[in-house]
Amino acid sequence: MILTCGWISVALISSALAFQAESPDARAAEVKNAFQYAWTNYVNHTFGSDEIQPVTGMASNSRNGWGASIFDGLDTLLIMGLKDEYEQALEHVSKVNWRVSNDPSKTFETNIRYLGGLLSAYDLQPNPILLSKALSLADQVILPAFDTPNKIPASYVNVTTGKPVPGNQVFLAEFGSMQLELVRLSQITGNSTYQELGLNIINRLAQVKPRYPGLYPMLWNLESFTPSDETIQLNLWEDSVASMETYLKSTTANGTVFLGEINDDLKLLQTGELICFIGGNILLGARYLNRPELDKFAKDLTDGCMTAWEKMPTGLAPEAWSWVDESQRLETFPNDVRLAMQTFGFIPQDKSYDLRPETLESLFYFYRITGDKSYQDKAWKIFKSIDTYCKVQYGYSRVLDTTANDTFKYLYLIFSDPELVSLDKYVFNTEAHPFKLPRPIQIQHTFS
Ligand SMILES: *[C@@H]1O[C@H](CO)[C@@H](O)[C@H](O)[C@H]1NC(C)=O
Ligand SMILES: *[C@@H]1O[C@H](CO)[C@@H](O)[C@H](O)[C@H]1NC(C)=O
Ligand SMILES: *[C@@H]1O[C@H](CO)[C@@H](O)[C@H](O)[C@H]1NC(C)=O
Ligand SMILES: *[C@@H]1O[C@H](CO)[C@@H](O)[C@H](O)[C@H]1NC(C)=O
Ligand SMILES: *[C@@H]1O[C@H](CO)[C@@H](O)[C@H](O)[C@H]1NC(C)=O
């Protein structure tokens, strides 16, 4: 059987990977080695580019050529204690000119990777270079995106002119992910301009009544945007989790729970690895809002995602899968569907794995919040599969974007002292960059 890790085909060698119980320290050290392998390759061959292509070892620049891997890697280098590598990275950071790029800045990516990376490194180890770069980036590249009729950020900004690129379509996941970075920048600088812009988006969003409470369409019109405080966001979150349970949850005959999709009022029984952060997110919210009745939904979804890893012969979850649910009669489906349901418990659709971190992200929240060590073991199995099937000459495929850095960061943190980036003191942005909370909260399990 041939499966793929990113765009690499891997011949299947063994049906199951040997699983050894090792100490968390030994596991953390092995994850650190794997990260260093990817990092050293990048430094040796393509330092300063956005990313290295792991198979050819050539540079590529998908994020404006400012060195995205470096900005994305700053916090990981600090967390793993890689001091020399960090100094070298910081040297690069100090020299970047935000006004120079061959491409327009994609507001969402620039915000979560570059601004997020800078602020997170600043929170872990304050340094004036990081803050001044964060401010110049925000002022020169990110704030110009808000120069639109409704102050909803445009998708792209021309960094030379400092003007939004004309275009009328914006994505919920993009403008809805601007808040953490902008709020944190205001907290650190004491200048409220940034957070006002970020929170205005949520206020505008909350005025729009969607068809299913809390479930908003993905694509929005920038011109006619009709769709602050913490309560609004928490209420929106609770509505959306309730609607997920009512409208999207689906259970197979075997009792496995997956989250479906709605398209034109039709429930589609399909999902993918990208969605697998949701179990961890629901558990985090359940604890923060003291809603223990949501724990089971969170756990069922995470277990469902784990099934997608565990049932595949490589131990790597497919990018996308579908299923037949308990209300349907399996015998009425074609042979291949029945066979897949019997073999895997779902139907793999896209059998590539893009080194995605979402399931590991959920396992990280489950481990830190419940203290249950079995989540460490699950994460370790995933790491061993990645190390077996995805390691190539110049790093880990597929590293065309920098997602694998989140993957290694979550893995490392799962095996490290829970006080390292404690969930009581930090909140993670969508690119896995941790920001310091203004006041500590109580979310994490008390590890003795
Ligand atoms: C990177 O370069 C150093 C110094 O030339 C060398 O010792 C090391 O083996 C190289 N590592 C990788 C992974 O390319
Ligand atoms: C993360 O950053 C490193 C170093 O910048 C880079 O090699 C790579 O593109 C990114 N992803 C992975 C897999 O490390
Ligand atoms: C930015 O705008 C200038 C002036 O209109 C144009 O020449 C340039 O090509 C644009 N840059 C990008 C990256 O689109
Ligand atoms: C806050 O930041 C904005 C955007 O850079 C700037 O225009 C304004 O002058 C700043 N306010 C203060 C008090 O520094
Ligand atoms: C269905 O559940 C049974 C009993 O728990 C288990 O043995 C079997 O492996 C499951 N099948 C699939 C395809 O998940």
From TrEMBL:
Pathway per the UniProt entry: Protein modification; protein glycosylation
Keyword ATP-binding listed: no
EC number(s) recorded for this UniProt protein: 3.2.1.-
GO biological process assignments: carbohydrate metabolic process; ERAD pathway
GO MF terms held by the record: calcium ion binding; mannosyl-oligosaccharide 1,2-alpha-mannosidase activity
CC terms in the record's Gene Ontology section: endoplasmic reticulum; membrane
Entry keyword DNA repair: no
Residues annotated as binding Ca(2+): 430
InterPro entries: 6hp_glycosidase-like_sf (IPR012341), Glyco_hydro_47 (IPR001382), Glycosyl_Hydrolase_47 (IPR050749), Seven-hairpin_glycosidases (IPR036026)
Cofactor(s) the record lists: Ca(2+)
SUPFAM superfamilies in the record: Seven-hairpin glycosidases
Pfam families found in the cross-reference section: Glyco_hydro_47
Superkingdom of source: Eukaryota
SS bonds (residue pairs): 276-305
Residues making up the signal peptide according to the UniProt record: 1-18
Keywords of this entry: Calcium, Disulfide bond, Glycosidase, Hydrolase, Metal-binding, Signal
Swiss-Prot/TrEMBL catalytic activity: N(4)-(alpha-D-Man-(1->2)-alpha-D-Man-(1->2)-alpha-D-Man-(1->3)-[alpha-D-Man-(1->3)-[alpha-D-Man-(1->2)-alpha-D-Man-(1->6)]-alpha-D-Man-(1->6)]-beta-D-Man-(1->4)-beta-D-GlcNAc-(1->4)-beta-D-GlcNAc)-L-asparaginyl-[protein] (N-glucan mannose isomer 8A1,2,3B1,3) + 3 H2O = N(4)-(alpha-D-Man-(1->3)-[alpha-D-Man-(1->3)-[alpha-D-Man-(1->6)]-alpha-D-Man-(1->6)]-beta-D-Man-(1->4)-beta-D-GlcNAc-(1->4)-beta-D-GlcNAc)-L-asparaginyl-[protein] (N-glucan mannose isomer 5A1,2) + 3 beta-D-mannose; N(4)-(alpha-D-Man-(1->2)-alpha-D-Man-(1->2)-alpha-D-Man-(1->3)-[alpha-D-Man-(1->2)-alpha-D-Man-(1->3)-[alpha-D-Man-(1->2)-alpha-D-Man-(1->6)]-alpha-D-Man-(1->6)]-beta-D-Man-(1->4)-beta-D-GlcNAc-(1->4)-beta-D-GlcNAc)-L-asparaginyl-[protein] (N-glucan mannose isomer 9A1,2,3B1,2,3) + 4 H2O = N(4)-(alpha-D-Man-(1->3)-[alpha-D-Man-(1->3)-[alpha-D-Man-(1->6)]-alpha-D-Man-(1->6)]-beta-D-Man-(1->4)-beta-D-GlcNAc-(1->4)-beta-D-GlcNAc)-L-asparaginyl-[protein] (N-glucan mannose isomer 5A1,2) + 4 beta-D-mannose
The family this protein is said to belong to: Belongs to the glycosyl hydrolase 47 family.
Name used for this protein in its record: alpha-1,2-Mannosidase
Organism: Hesseltinella vesiculosa
Source species taxonomy: Eukaryota, Fungi, Fungi incertae sedis, Mucoromycota, Mucoromycotina
